[in-house]
Amino acid sequence: MDPRALRSRTALRGAVLALAEQTPVASLTVAEVCRHAGVTRDTFYRHASGPTELLAAALAAEIEALPERDRLGDAERDLIVHIHARREVYRHAMSPTLAAPVRAQLERVLAEGLHAWLDEHPDLAPEPVRTDAAARDIAVAYAAGGTVAALEAWLRRGDDAGAAVHPGDDIESATRAILVASPEWWLRTRGRDERREP
């Protein structure tokens, strides 16, 4: 990407993240994002088809920039730390679930990470996931979709009037809850189960 396009993309992503921190994503307009980013509508449409798609790409880029981890539980915690840092953005993208482009990008990034995990640890998966590509795709989609649904439930806790825990108040508990709900084979590394060992 040429430097000018990169500057525009950076400005647009920064603008949509800042605006989504304060405003429900569904009410954001292209004109508002352009004003905030200091770019034209033509420039906007070279990068995204709408504010929600732009936001989805910005959040996905942040998740993709998270460090690679040797343990799936550590990667899960890093994801939750990211969600916590951007919790108002994610909550403004929910109605009551995440906007479709945001959810799709989140599931895509998680699925890519899970496929990479299975590539690095091929013996972890049981049959038929280990040898059948369709079964592997189904298991990965199930895990990614379930993780996103769990994150949505965690984010909604702050919307409940009587909620004891606001999103992010206990990142460790949220991480443990997701790991405990995961099939044990996902969490095995060199003979260990991450749910049992710190």
TrEMBL record:
Residues 29-48 bind DNA. InterPro entries: Homeodomain-like_sf, HTH_TetR. The keyword DNA-binding applies. SUPFAM superfamilies: Homeodomain-like. It holds the Pfam family TetR_N. GO terms for molecular function: DNA binding. Residues 6-66 form the HTH tetR-type domain. Signal peptide: none annotated. Keywords: DNA-binding. This is HTH tetR-type domain-containing protein. It comes from Microbacterium aurum.
